[in-house]
Amino acid sequence: MKIEGNHLERRQRPYAEILLANKAWAKNMVEKDAEYFKRLALGQYPDYLWIGCSDSRVPAAGVSQTEPGELFVHRNIANQVITNDFNLMSVVKYAVDYLNVKHIVVCGHYGCGGVIAAMNNNTDKYLGDWLTGIKDSYKRNRAELDTFTDEKEKINRMCEINVERQIEKLASSSLIQKAWRKGKELQLHGWIFDLETGLINPLTDVVGNPNT
Ligand code: CO
Fold first, then answer.
1. Is residue 143, in this structure, part of any structural domain at all?
2. 17 belongs to a structural domain
3. Which residues have their alpha-adjacent CB atom under 5 A from ion ligand 1?
């Protein structure tokens, strides 16, 4: 297998180049559709809320091939759903109650650095505490995880367990429970992105209220 390119190295792209690329993109979009940005500015009606990892290799719009206006996005380290996290929960609140999204996707990825750090019991300030939930999940699933002889497979299974756990927490949250009780059509999907193939692997779907 041949690995080409320099993705393992820092790209060192000058920031001015990014601004130039933006100009070229905007120009190109307008050339294709003169009204494109005028329409975009009118408002957003996304069907999807995407909760993903902050990892630079898993851009929400890129891997899902969605256009501006289709995804409402929240990303944090290791795609955690922590129900007293104001940042996340205000995004979920707005997405569900105001944007009326029909789907919430929690998308993790194999080889997640946050998951690996939790498995190694990272105690860095902020980071170690942010990962507490994964550390607990790791302990609870130790019997299954210790059956893996291949370290990479073990990590990847933990990455899947992490996504499944976030979907459970989301499904049990008061906000989502309330939405379902009001009869809102809202589905939760746990996905995991494979950096080695570029493919999203669907893990779990919650299409009705699991708590009733
Ligand atoms: Co990650």
1. yes
2. no
3. 53, 55, 112, 114
95 and 176 in contact (C-beta within 8 Å)? no
Q: How far apart are CA 50 and CA 195, in angstroms?
A: 18
Kindly tell me the sign of the dihedral angle through the C-alpha atoms of 78, 79, 85, 91: positive
CATH code of 147's domain? 3.40.1050.10
> Is 150 known to be catalytic?
no
Structure tokens at 23: 């100009």
User: What is the rounded distance in angstroms from the CA atom of residue 171 to the CA atom of residue 165?
Assistant: 10
Of the candidates 74, 103, 107, 112, the residue annotated as catalytic is 112
- 111 - beta bridge partners? none
Q: Domain limits at 185?
A: 44-207
Q: Catalytic one among 74, 103, 107, 109?
A: 109
Q: Is 112 a catalytic residue?
A: yes
Tokens of 36: 């494109």
142 is catalytic: no
Distance CA 209, CA 35 (A): 41
| Catalytic site includes residue 109 | yes
Which amino acid is residue 176, in one-letter code? I
Strand partners, 75: 52
Least confident of 5-9, 25-29, 206-210: 5-9
pTM of the model: 0.94
- Write out pLDDT tens, residues 89-115: 999 999 999 999 999 999 999 999 999
Tokens of 31: 């050339």
- Is 33 a known active-site residue? no
